[in-house]
Write a structure and sequence with these properties.
Elements: H1 8-24, H2 30-36, H3 42-54, E1 58-60, E2 68-70, H4 72-97, E3 99-102, E4 104-109, E5 115-116, E6 132-135, E7 147-152, E8 166-171, E9 180-185, E10 190-199, E11 202-206, E12 215-217, E13 222-232
Parallel strand pairs: 4-7
Antiparallel strand pairs: 1-2, 3-6, 5-10, 7-8, 8-13, 9-10, 9-13, 10-11, 11-12
Helix pairs in contact: 1-4, 2-3
Length: 236
C-alpha cells in the first residue's frame, strides 16, 4: 500500500528543522517550529511531528525539549522542497527579467502645431517615478536604448495614437517614408510626432487626422529623434 504523501505543512516543518539545525547546530523547539511555519498551537505542531515520526522522517526524545533527530529519509524530502523553492525563485526571476523600465523623457506634440521643447529629448530631465514598465516581448530593438514620450494632441488619432497616450521610441536619426517619428525642428526649437515623407526637396510631416494639414519644412531644419515602436494607451 502506498504511503500517504506528506502535507505541505509537514514538508515545511522538515525544511525548517533541517535549515535550523544546519545554522545553529541543534534542533529547534516546538514553539520555534510553530512560529516558523505559522502554527499557533503547540499541540498541532506535536501532532504533525508525531505523523512525521510514524512515517520515519524523524525520531524524538520526548524527555528533551530539543529532542528531534532527522533521518536520511527526511533529508531527501527537505532537499526536494528546497529544489522546488529554488525553481519557483527562478521562475519569478525570469518573469521579472521579461519586463524592462523605459524612461519617460517628456512630452511630444501631436497637434496642428509642434510642441515647444528645450532641445534633444535625451537632454530632458528624467523622473524615475514616471518610468514605463513594458514586457520585452512587445518591444523591438535594444531595450536599454528605448525612451518614452507622452503624447499631447490628436493629430495621430487615425494611427491609433490619442492625446495622453505614451509612445515608446527607438532612437534613430534617419527615417523612411511613412514611418511615425519624433521630429525636432531646429528653426523654432519645437518637436512633433508625425509620419515622415521626403519629397520634392522638402519634408512633409503628415498628421493622421483628416481635419489637419501636413507641415512642410526644409530638410535642413529636420532632426529625426526616433521611431515609434509601441503605443501605450491612456486608460479611459
Amino acid at each position: 500500500m502506498n504511503e500517504k504523501p506528506l502535507s505541505k505543512r509537514q514538508q515545511e516543518i522538515l525544511q525548517f528543522t533541517r535549515g535550523y539545525m544546519e545554522e545553529n547546530g541543534r534542533p529547534p523547539t516546538i514553539r520555534e517550529i510553530g512560529k516558523a511555519v505559522k502554527i499557533n498551537s503547540t499541540s498541532v505542531v506535536n501532532y504533525n511531528l508525531g505523523k512525521l515520526e510514524e512515517k520515519g522522517y524523524l525520531s524524538r526524545d520526548h524527555d528533551v525539549s530539543r529532542g528531534l533527530r532527522l533521518t536520511d529519509k527526511a533529508a531527501e524530502v527537505a532537499n526536494g522542497v528546497g529544489h522546488a523553492l529554488n525553481k519557483a525563485a527562478e521562475a519569478v526571476r525570469d518573469v521579472v527579467q521579461d519586463f524592462v523600465r523605459v524612461p519617460v523623457w517628456g512630452d511630444i506634440g501631436a497637434s496642428a502645431s509642434p510642441l515647444p521643447t528645450f532641445g534633444d529629448f535625451n537632454l530632458l530631465a528624467r523622473d524615475e517615478e514616471n518610468d514605463v514598465i513594458v514586457p520585452t516581448n512587445m518591444l523591438k530593438g535594444k531595450p536599454d536604448q528605448l525612451y518614452a514620450l507622452r503624447v499631447r494632441g490628436d493629430s495621430m488619432i487615425d494611427a491609433m495614437v490619442n492625446d495622453g497616450d505614451t509612445v515608446i521610441m527607438q532612437p534613430q536619426y534617419e527615417a523612411r517614408n511613412g514611418e511615425m517619428v519624433a521630429v525636432y525642428l531646429k528653426d523654432d526649437t519645437s518637436a512633433t510626432l508625425k509620419r515622415f515623407y521626403a519629397e520634392d526637396g522638402r519634408v512633409r510631416l503628415q498628421p493622421a487626422n483628416p481635419t489637419l494639414k501636413p507641415i512642410y519644412v526644409d530638410p535642413e531644419e529636420v532632426r529625426i529623434q526616433g521611431k515609434v515602436v509601441l503605443v501605450i494607451r491612456q486608460p479611459n
